[in-house]
Amino acid sequence: MNATAATNKGALFPTSIAGSLPKPAWLAEPNKLWPQWRLKGDDLANAIDDATLLALKLQEDAGIDIVGDGELSRQHFVHGFLEAVDGIDFDKKVEMGIRDDRYKAMCPSVVGELRLRGRVHAREARLARAHTTRKLKFTLPGPMTIVDTIADAHYGDRTKMALAFAGLLNEEARGLAADGVDVIQFDEPAFNVYMEQAAGWGIEALHRAIDGVGCTSAVHICYGYGIPANIAWKAGLGTEWRQYEKFFPALAKSRIDQVSIECINSHVPLRVLELLEGKDVLVGLIDVATDKIETPEEIAGVIGDVMKYVAKEKIVACTNCGMAPMRRDIAEKKLRALGKGAALARQKFA
After folding, report:
1. What is the pTM for the complete model shown?
2. Which one-letter DSSP state was computed for residue 318?
3. At what angle do helices 122-130 and 158-178 cross, to 10 degrees?
4. Could you give the count of Cα atoms lying within 13 Å of 244 in the half-sphere of its Cβ?
């Protein structure tokens, strides 16, 4: 564990965020999943530094124990990594159906062997580590989700390409661990779309990504940002969302330390969490698809329900998904509710 670990080490229900936070309006277009920057060059880099420090302060003030950079240096959670990779042609874009054709996107193409040009997130990770004494979490896109978000004009095989990306992610993850990051999380929303592959080469690629990485590993699996395409998709999933049963047993046997999942206002039967025995579970307690602010009582209540299936020492209080497209003021209120809800749960269930 890093020497700058959280001051409340050992407390029940430590709080964290899934990953992204809204960008300030002076940095980028507000309330958009893929916003345009307001600045360029050194001015942009310095503004991102400022926004990252504000994000850390916001989380600390809200009672968040395991803080992150908010992904404020990235326009998109996948492409923020891909921009540092050779072998990708961003001018050769292909319209693709992603997440099993849930929606279409213009995706750049892999046209040659993949290589990192250098460190991807050293600047923001080192800045965050230097300005907080709390545990620091950093997110990277997962290999399966990357290959579902990019066109392949070189490898001809999704598994082969995923393992190639996993090797690059491993390079960056090793660097992040050396920078003092305590938790590295791989975001894999594709896992609940391609369940059989997730249990096979999806986990194999994650193992490649964490190989030799000297800090806690996590995987984030969810039903996506609160955007119309995802909301419409979830409306057709029925009264019980049971996809997780298909790959949680394999995930429980994996070398990944933590699993982050959507819980509040979802139709995930909480009993499926029993299938993650032995893992820390980052329980989504903040709904990113609504502006309604959760109450501390609601949050503590969901924690109590989860305790029927997960040992309380294994529960981390988290958000359902990233908050990038949300209104900034709403996100701040939701984070404060998360901090208060976890504190109330400690009082009730200690």
Report:
1. 0.94
2. E
3. 30
4. 27
DSSP at 9:
T
Domain that holds residue 249: 41-349
Residue 8 included in any domain: no
Alpha helix stretches (DSSP H) within the chain: 41-62, 79-82, 122-130, 143-147, 158-178, 195-197, 203-210, 228-235, 248-252, 296-306, 328-349
Residues 6+ apart with CB under 8 A from 144: 162, 188, 190, 191, 194, 197, 198, 201, 202, 205
Q: What are the pLDDT digits (tens) for 19-75?
A: 999 999 999 999 988 899 999 999 999 999 999 999 999 999 999 999 999 999 999
Q: How many domains does the chain have?
A: 1
* Cα-to-chain-centroid distance, residue 147: 17
Q: Does residue 16 form part of some domain?
A: no
Q: Distance (Å, rounded) from C-alpha 307 to C-alpha 283? A: 11
Query: For the purposes of burial, counting CB atoms within 10 Å of the CB of 323, is it exposed (0-12), middle (13-18) or buried (19 or more)?
Result: buried
SS3 175: helix
Q: Are 204 and 191 in contact (CB under 8 A)?
A: no
In a domain, 10, yes or no: no
- Asked if residue 241 lies in contact with residue 195, where contact means CB atoms within 8 angstroms, the answer is no
What is the C-alpha to C-alpha distance for residues 186 and 257, in angstroms, rounded to an integer? 11
Q: What is the token pair recorded at 31?
A: 């309330």
CATH assignment of the domain containing 204 = 3.20.20.210
Q: How confident is the model at residue 102 (pLDDT cuts 50, 70, 90)?
A: confident
Q: What are phi and psi of 218, to 5 degrees?
A: -145, 155
pLDDT tens, position by position, 162-215: 999 999 999 999 999 999 999 999 999 999 889 999 999 999 999 999 999 999
Burial 278-317 (b: 16+ CB within 10 A, else e): ebbbbbbbbbbbeeeebebebbbbbbeebbebbeeebbbb
Q: Is position 301 within any domain? A: yes
The Cα 201–Cα 219 span in angstroms is: 15
Report the candidate in 317, 297, 296, 295 with the shortest Cα–Cα distance to residue 306.
317
